[in-house]
Amino acid sequence: HQQQLIQAGKMAALGVLVSGVAHEINNPNGYILLNMPILKAALLDACEVLDARRQELGARFELAGLPYDRMRAELPQMLDEMLAGGRRIKRIVDDLKNFARREDAPALEPMDVNAVAAAAVRLVDVSIRKATHRFTLELGRDLPRVLGNPQRIEQVLVNLLLNACQALPGPERAVRLATRHDPARGEVVVEVADEGAGIAPEDLPRLTDPFFTTKRETGGTGLGLSISATIVKEHGGALQFESAVGAGTTVSFALRAISTEAAA
Ligand code: ADP
Ligand code: MG
């Protein structure tokens, strides 16, 4: 128990540190994001003025030490890349803040898994519809309530649903969110299945490591599964992965049902 307390103290200190750093980065980055579009418009306007006087400026005319024509050709993309970089910083910092915002133990309360699943789907509805024409929500009937924290479980489901959507090669592939009662084990099982790219066997052990991502190009932060695994663990469960490369992935976890005896 002593060990757990020390660990909890370290995590809290880390959380404070990360929140502080995130704040310090987000503020100046906010100026960048706000002003970049204006700067871009101003520079491109100025270029048009220069374009009109291109002839009289001469062949050797330079901007910032580069031949004008080359600078002129590259400028729009340079500015767009800077803006994209700023947006990426914002995404990483937002994810980090989420990661750091760990109050000690989450308050567990009697929770309706189906209601939480439906709420999670509503949150990412737009992303789901963009990613697939074949989304199904299969809510188990007469589920017992579980002990859980609705906000946190919703966050897990949002992460799993977004990962499923991002794994699809095209909208004809299906994504399914299902809940069901397992009376023998006294659990409610939640499952997100996709017909996406699947996970390479060598990646499986690292999926829940903070910052592990195969989506560097598209701006993945590698924090979604790490956060989700921690949350499920706080509920006494574990994330289970089943995957076949090229065929798809199923991620599931179980939540302890509140025994009907105790409820009566
Ligand atoms: P991110 O989505 O930002 O990359 P995550 O922690 O959510 O970070 O996921 C980590 C990695 O696990 C992903 O980059 C991806 O390689 C893999 N992964 C997670 N879910 C799936 C899935 N449904 N199908 C295929 N790969 C997945
Ligand atoms: Mg993710």
UniProtKB/TrEMBL annotation:
Domain Histidine kinase per the UniProt entry, residue ranges: 20-259
Protein name as annotated: histidine kinase
Q: Which organism is it from?
A: Anaeromyxobacter diazotrophicus
Q: Which residues of the full protein are shown?
A: 318 to 581 of 581
